[in-house]
Amino acid sequence: MIQIKLLASILSCNFLRLENEIKEIQDSGCDMLHLDIMDGHFVPNITIGPDIVKQIHSISNLALDVHLMVENPSFWIEKFANAGAYSISVHQEADIHLNRLINTIKEKKIRALVSINPATSPIVLDYILDYVDGVLVMSVNPGFGGQKFIENSLRKIEYLAKYKYTNNLDYVIQVDGGVNLNNIKNLIDAGANEIIVGSALFKNIHEFVRKFKELTRIVV
Description:
Shape: globular
Largest sheet: 8 strands, parallel, barrel
Strand order of the largest sheet: 1-2-3-4-5-6-7-8
CATH class: Alpha Beta
Number of helices: 7
CATH architecture: Alpha-Beta Barrel
Helix content: 25-40%
């Protein structure tokens, strides 16, 4: 049986009550926290740094899935590894030495994932997929929450799922951006197995998780 995991993106949290919302996420049955790290250069927004991630790690028993949307990601790997990251995603578009960067993450004994923007073809990952623990498909242009899902992201997920099966690989396929209860079935059918949800989740965390678990039982 395929295990489908739900990751809560704290980009959509109310940061004035962040600790309370993280505890609510834990209590609801979410599998991981997804932390978007933005530097104002790679994407047009600024979020949080390793010190905040370390504090989140200290109050949460959920694994921290760190997504680096930054220029010069190699500078940040050790800092976020030390802050308590369970996995780190780096963008294919952000580093010309991607193989070395993935190996640097894996040397920290944490999951190493590669992420691609909406306009990037998954074909460019063919020669890195043997080495990664996962791929994060961005289904919106990164930088802000609450955007509409880009439909051709499904083709990317299907390509990555087929490549994984054909080459007997074992990486996870994540999807982030515009995810809601209306399109989750399509994402899972295409091959995604780690679903990242932001604004749709925080309308009613417990209710969303309940419906998600019902839906995934039917789909899987």
